[in-house]
Amino acid sequence: MSFFLTRVKTMLHQGGDAVLFHHEGRATTYRAAGEIVDRIYTGLASTTGVVAIDSGNRPEVVLTQVAAQARGLEVLLVAASASKPAREAALARTGATLLDLDELTTSEPSTPDPEDLPDQVTALFPTGGTTGTPKLIRHRGIYDGMAHIFTPDGTQTTLVTAPLTHMTGNAAALGALLSGNKVVLRKHFDAEELLADIETHRVTSLSLTPPRLAAVLDSPKLRDTDLASVQKLSLGAAPLSPRRLAQALEVFDGKVGQGYGLTEAPMIASIEGAELVDEHRLGSVGRIVPGMEARIDDGEVLVRGLSMMDGYLGEPPIGDGWLRTGDLGHFDDEGYLHLHDRIADVIITGDHGTKVPSTAVEHTLLAHPCVAAAAVFAVPGPGGEGELVHAVVVTTAETTAAELREHVHRQLGGAHFVPSAVDFVEELPLTPVGKVDKRKLAEPFWSGHSRHIA
Q: DSSP 3-state assignment of 10?
């Protein structure tokens, strides 16, 4: 039987009246969560094949996932960031039954017989789909791996703002359950609410994307918030500027780590606060974690190892094969991995087709004292020919486009890095997982053009 399901069942049984979830002002104990799982398990008695969960953050998301997996069902977690066509495509491709979480919890509870539990559990996650129709990623072994990594504890409180239908939020919540810890679960991210949660619930660990970290660091409430309970702040999911990382290290007393992973391979590299005392490592995502391998091929990062997906739905299993990540990077002399950009975000500009990593320009803009947030992407050149570097920034003090363009030229030393134009906005749009939505920013520029790059 599945080691993951056995561990989950044990923790739900032993947790008793300890709080598992604190969500929207309501506490759900381990005992109550176990009963919800048993109710959903009953409600799924006649269901077969693939089931889909498409919901905002609530405890029932992971509890339904566990109950369905106990039934031997494959679970499709529909990404919160997915468009309506992408949602429909994922359901059609898998033939999944879309679950009604409220209806399932009204069933009479029944406890799974341990002998009936499957040997493995399966979850399907869509890719980001930034370059077309999302692929579907099948994960199996990673859940038993989590059951070995997360051991009983009961002393920690994890704050989760990432969607539970994405790998980051899903793993954080299930990891806390497997450890007997508490999850403070938020449906939406809000910097002020997050700071209040840290102080009120004595949060010990949380994860943030760079844009959400920036919102926390810039919040006027930060100065008056007691952060002493935080033992680990994990950063990832998007490029992070060295300036913001240095700020986070100062604010959170060095208890900051950065990770690199993909939905296909959630754990690839990591770096902890103690390693970041050397300034040159601030631009690194860390060393490759045990059980994983990585190499560089023509500038692109390739990976393989224990945290790898089984494969894409409808394609052969990846096995021991190398996965092309789509990320450009290099290793330094100490073995630390430095990422330059996503291949899709490299802007090809100028008469000679010079390649400009968008993150290089973004980090340079963020180093300007007046810039709080920046997004850089390609827009069509005159007549729709070629690409130009375009920037959108959020500022904290008065500056001009000319000043920022000169700053980029001075710091990077080449005219091809300089944005052709700089737009000023109040805030950058974010995806539900907290990444800057470059596609939304770029769409108006590419309307009417055959090539669409975001």
A: helix
Q: Which residue has the tokens 């497997």?
A: 178
Tell me where in the chain the CATH 3.40.50.12780 domain(s) lie: 3-340
Cα radius of gyration rounded to whole Å, the chain: 23
Helices then strands (H, E): number in the chain?
13, 24
- Kindly report the number of other CB atoms within 10 A of residue 423's CB atom: 12
Report the C-alpha gap between 117 and 64 in whole angstroms: 15
Question: Can you spell out the DSSP letters for 177-203?
Answer: HHHT-EEEE-SS--HHHHHHHHHHHT-
| Sole residue written with tokens 């986070």 | 248
| Residue 170 burial (CB count, 10 A) | 25
Please state, in angstroms and rounded to a whole number, the distance separating the CA atoms of residues 450 and 352.
21
pLDDT along the chain (454 residues), means of 10: 92 96 95 96 94 95 97 92 78 93 93 85 78 77 89 94 90 95 94 96 92 89 95 81 85 90 90 83 88 92 92 88 90 91 78 73 91 91 80 94 94 88 93 82 79 39
**Which residue type sits at 87?**
R
Strands (E), 366-454: 371-380, 387-395, 421-424
The answer to whether 105 touches 36, Cβ cutoff 8 Å, is yes
Angle between helices 30-43 and 59-70 (to 10 degrees): 50
Burial zone of 289 (CB within 10 Å; 0-12 exposed, 13-18 middle, 19+ buried): middle
Q: Amino acid identity, residue 177?
A: L
Q: 3-340 — its CATH code?
A: 3.40.50.12780
What is residue 130's predicted lDDT score, i.e. its pLDDT? 45
Query: Could you give the residue range(s) of every CATH 3.30.300.30 domain in the chain?
Result: 350-446
pLDDT of residue 186: 94
Q: Give CA separation, 300 vs 3, 150, 338, in Å.
A: 35, 32, 11
- Give pTM, 2 decimals: 0.79
CATH architecture designation of domain 350-446? 2-Layer Sandwich (3.30)
By the 8 A CB rule, do 252 and 277 touch? no
Q: Is residue 208 within 8 Å of residue 236, measured between CB atoms?
A: no
In degrees rounded to 5, what are phi and psi of residue 132?
150, -155
